Amino acid sequence: MQKGRIHSMESMGLVDGPGIRTVLFLQGCGLRCKYCHNPDTWDIQGGREMDVNQVLNRLKRFRPYYGETGGLTCSGGEPLLQMEFVLELFQVCKKEKISTCLDTAGYGYGQYEELLKFTDLVLFDAKHYIPEEYKQLTGGDFSAPSKFLETVEKSGTPLWVRHVVVPGLTDSEAHIRGMKEYIKEIPNVEKVELLPYHALGVEKYKEMGMDYPLKDVMPMDKEKTKQLQNMVLDTIL
Prior knowledge:
Blueprint: E1 3-13, E2 21-26, E3 48-51, H1 52-66, E4 71-75, H2 83-95, E5 99-104, H3 113-117, E6 121-125, H4 131-138, H5 143-155, E7 159-165, H6 173-184, E8 189-196, H7 202-207, H8 222-233
Parallel strand pairs: 2-4, 4-5, 5-6, 6-7, 7-8
Antiparallel strand pairs: 1-2, 1-3
Helix pairs in contact: 1-2, 6-8
């Protein structure tokens, strides 16, 4: 039985997929996004170890709240770094008729086909649409999420796209127009959501003795985010 490294578990999540969901936050991430508010999830050896049955027993307790649309969302960190664990967990969830959702930036390794067979929905965190800017913002290689999206296209798995809007980085109308064109090329997209940047992770960086990359950046204005959201949604879906 597979074991995973778990950062935390949220029992009644309302924003990470449809309905009421249990959100499992896994340890490990290969990206270093400038706006990351969970640096404590980066270390794949952090958190606590749980096996698939331990997680499933927790899910069964909350199953009465899931209704027709709720279920399990695996988030992180980056759940693709613990793909074998997530795969076995999703397999048992399907046997138990518990909906599965993968919240990911698409930044893992290996083959994703088998995992997507047991994934009802992908929440894709689109960081940027220009490879050089993606590297600057996340420290990562743009080819990794591109490969993941190719596999999602082949699988036909439904996709929700989310994008964090950061003042001075990703909040210009030109950037949003470019992101819109990028998203239009992604198949299976059922929903697009812009998320306003917040500074709630600043204290974590202090506690961990780390410098926060965006310490002088103010939280994103929510009204402007709504306006940009309308720009994205216009003709995209």
